[in-house]
Amino acid sequence: METGGRDGRALVRTDIRVVPANKASCEDLLAVFGDRGSPATCFCQRYKLHPGEAFSKFPRDERRERLRGQARCGDPSADATSGIVAHLDREPVGWCAVEPRPAYFGLARVYRVPWEGRNEDRSDGSVWSVTCVLVRAGFRSSGITYALAAAAVEHARARGARALEAYPYRTAVGEVTWDEIHPGSESIFAAAGMREVSRPGKRRLVMRIDFDGTLSNPSTSTEERHG
């Protein structure tokens, strides 16, 4: 979660650069996740499990390798990636998981938040989702999540998405821990132009932006996105 200024608006940064994860080095990607805590345990695999897989049944090292393979880090020519990476003064500081919604197998099978009270085709790959927004320890409360949310919108739009969804918490600063709020907070997605479309729980929202079919240039959207 990020805090805003005294007037409640999002922090504005001009020194944050966000790139598709395949255009970041694997060293930079893994530096964001660190060596301890929930990020270094999950490696963004919570929603990526295939049918029949259990999170506890494969080791941490395999989760890390799966992330590397999904992100295609260090492979600028890759035609797909599983997220975006933020840099602050060339230092890797943030990650956002953003892909077509069906890529999150566990999201479709287990989690009720995206679906409750809605009539959605879970196999529709034209709808993309943000499932994790992570800022590296030591760089939090610096506006980085706002930059990541805005870049996620442009990343999905540029790659042909019809819409982008997020499933954030609606909560005040300090009410939940960084580990709990990995889906992001309402404020960062609202600042990126998303609106609430569903409220499946007291503190959980579904937020969404629908695109008009006009595509930006993928080579100049996320790669040159600054906070």
Descriptive notes:
By secondary structure, this protein is an alpha+beta fold. The protein is 22% helix and 20% strand. The protein has an eight-stranded mixed sheet, with helices on both faces. The longest helix has 15 residues. The N terminus is likely disordered.
Name some characteristics of this structure.
single chain, 227 residues, alpha+beta, Aminopeptidase, eight-stranded mixed β-sheet, 6 helices, 20% strand, globular
Number of extended strands = 8
Largest sheet report: 8 strands, mixed
Integer tally of domains? 1
* Intertermini distance: 16 Å
CATH architecture: 3-Layer(aba) Sandwich
Strand content: 15-25%
Strand order in the sheet with the most strands = 6-7-5-4-3-2-1-8
Q: Please give the count of helices.
A: 6
DSSP helix fraction: 10-25%
SSE order, as H and E?
EHHHEEHEHEHEEE
Structural class: alpha+beta
Mean pLDDT: 85
What does the overall shape look like? Answer: globular
- In the predicted model, the low-confidence regions spanning at least 5 consecutive residues are 1-10, 215-221
CATH topology: Aminopeptidase
Task: Offer a quick outline of the entry.
This protein is α+β, with helices and mostly antiparallel strands and 227 residues long. 22% of the residues lie in helices and 20% in strands.
